Amino acid sequence: MTLNPSPITLGTSGLGRDSLPGSSEEADAVADAIALFESSHTFLDTSNNYSGGRSEAVIGLARARVGDRATDRVITKVDEDPVTHAFGRDRVLRSFEESCARLGVDTLPLLHFHDPYSVTFAEAASSGGAIEGLLELRAAGVVGAIGIATYPVDEMIEYVETGAFDAVLSHNRYTLVDRSATELFTKAHDRGMTVFNAAPFGSGLLAKGSASSSTYAYREPSAELLARVVRMEEICRAHDVPLAAVALHFSLRSPLVDSTVVGIRTAARLRALDELAATVIPDELWALIDDANASE
């Protein structure tokens, strides 16, 4: 299946967090989800376990209200059993069913195999393993494409090289300050897979800046990393552009990336994202950014 994502995909891991069915918090989250559907961005990216299932539930409520405009615009992911941590064929099928029930759909354009930390690659690829379940869903026509979405780059390359997957999603590993997913994305791109690059802001640091006490890849940044970010901030100030806009455009301009996944929880954050995407970045800035990375 050809996915044809827009340059930006809207991540919804925090949508509906701590909301209860029928609450005012849920109503607010549904309104935000409707705004995401009404945006120019093709896909909303969620997962079976995001916000304990509330992300999918809220998106399902919004999808029902939006109607045809929401058709085939939700990407989700299968996750391990939250109690037993089982993640074989049967769990993949059950996770898919749970997601469809919350979303109010029977089919999905793309289903990712998400964070398979409880199983080895060999287990996932074996008879009765998770990949078997994903292939069954695609063969049945209820899933248009299947993807691998996790963190360790080396492990992801193993999945890509099976030839079973149509898409790949990596987070925090292809940013202004970390290019370690380059080999992964190159291999996927060369196979004709759709490449999603998630977390271009490195979980906060490249959006909020060096003085914000933000994490990078969910960890406290090293002194060396902070020093590089400070140099990049100086370059951005000299060119009158925000560091966050440069971080976003690093991914948007890459020939290896088909769509950049950015976490968006509210309509206000969506407006801010669109402003960053519309920012014009001077061509000469990119060489200076590369020099700032290479100086250490």
Features:
about 300 residues, alpha/beta, TIM Barrel, 8 strands, about 45% helix, globular
Describe this structure as you would to a colleague.
By secondary structure, this protein is an alpha/beta fold. The chain has one domain (8-294): TIM Barrel. The chain has helices at residues 24-37, 54-66, 89-103, 121-125, 130-140, 153-160, 182-190, 205-208, 223-238, 243-252, 267-278, 285-294, and strands at 8-11, 44-45, 74-78, 111-114, 146-150, 167-171, 194-198, 259-263. Strands 1-2-3-4-5-6-7-8 form an 8-stranded parallel β-barrel, surrounded by 5 helices. Strand 5 (146-150), helix 6 (153-160) and strand 6 form a beta-alpha-beta unit.
Assembly type of the shown chains?
Answer: single chain
Catalogue the unreliable spans: none
Helix content: 40-55%
And the CATH topology? Answer: TIM Barrel
Largest sheet: 8 strands, parallel, barrel
Describe the structure in brief.
This protein is α/β, with parallel strands linked by helices. The chain has one domain (8-294): NADP-dependent oxidoreductase domain (TIM Barrel), CATH 3.20.20.
Which helices and strands appear, and what pairs or packs with what?
Elements: E1 8-11, H1 24-37, E2 44-45, H2 54-66, E3 74-78, H3 89-103, E4 111-114, H4 121-125, H5 130-140, E5 146-150, H6 153-160, E6 167-171, H7 182-190, E7 194-198, H8 205-208, H9 223-238, H10 243-252, E8 259-263, H11 267-278, H12 285-294
Parallel strand pairs: 1-2, 1-8, 2-3, 3-4, 4-5, 5-6, 6-7, 7-8
Helix pairs in contact: 1-2, 3-5, 6-7, 9-12
